[in-house]
Amino acid sequence: MYQKQIEQLVMLQSIDGEMITLTAELRNAPLEIQGLEQKNAEIEQSMALVKDKLGYLENQLTRLESENEEDHVRMRKSKSKMMAVGNSKEYHAMVREMDNLEKQTRVRDEERTALREELDRQVKAEADMAEQVTAINQELEQARAGLTERMEKAQKRLDHLSVSRKSACKALPPPILSRYEFIRSRLANPVIVPVDNGVCSGCNISIPPQSYIELQKGQQILSCPNCQRLIYWAQHVQPDEPEVQATAAGSRG
Question: CA–CA separation, 253 vs 249, rounded Å?
Fold first, then answer.
């Protein structure tokens, strides 16, 4: 009786473990797509900002080109006037005007060079973002295409496991099942663990020698005094036992 109960508890835990994994998958699968959609929206928002900046830079370049052209026209006119000045005072005034125009031209040339460099950087940034958007859209398309099938498969398996769990619960005495459920509600998996060489595999702490002796007798289901998990002697449940293999296979089917 003890051996059968331990095997049922181990099987129940295996079912619960897979159900936890599937439930997490059903919960997280849509979140993965939401994460990709959010990432895509953030990149597109950044691209919009880059486009605005590109528009501003292009307008600034156009302005500088126009002002530079106007300065060149004024310089040509000033050179023509210099040929017709009547005195040195007018001549020096024209020279100062031309010097100022040349300085303005140099300043604009430097500003124009800086703007072009920044424009090139922003164009590259926009191209890189466009590639990211394309890649994310492809990933999204694949994720959306497989999401329905993936969720249906997980839900089908979860439904099957629910049936198997009910059967496993019926095979256990109510007090033992209640004890298992109580521990499960307070501790993360696993709930029932093997003890080998006197060490609980749930908390990796040695159990008292007398408890280990009682555990080896296989007469009653004990708990680890350290972590409170249900425990069994490792040699009482072998993974290669035909009955356990058949049970495990049934829970996966």
Answer: 6
Closest residue by Cα to residue 111 from 67, 50, 53: 67
- pLDDT given at position 239: 60
**How does the average pLDDT of the chain come out, rounded?**
86
- Token digits of residue 155: 């839900």
Q: To 10 degrees, what angle do helices 2-82 and 174-186 make?
A: 20
Longest CA pairwise span in the chain (Å): 126
Q: Which of 18, 3, 6 is nearest to 193 (CA)?
A: 6
Pinpoint the residues of the chain covered by CATH 1.10.287.1490.
Answer: 13-170
Residue type, 239: P
13-170 maps to CATH 1.10.287.1490: yes
Q: What pLDDT is recorded for position 159? A: 94
The encoded tokens of residue 56 equal 């501003």
- 141-164: pLDDT as tens digits: 888 878 888 888 999 999 999 999
Q: How far apart are CA 222 and CA 82, in angstroms?
A: 111
Q: Residue 192 and residue 173: Cα distance in Å, rounded? A: 16
The pTM for the full model equals: 0.55
Report which DSSP code applies to 226. Answer: T
Cis bond before residue 190 (omega within 30° of 0):
yes
- pLDDT tens-digit profile of 13-27? 999 999 999 998 888
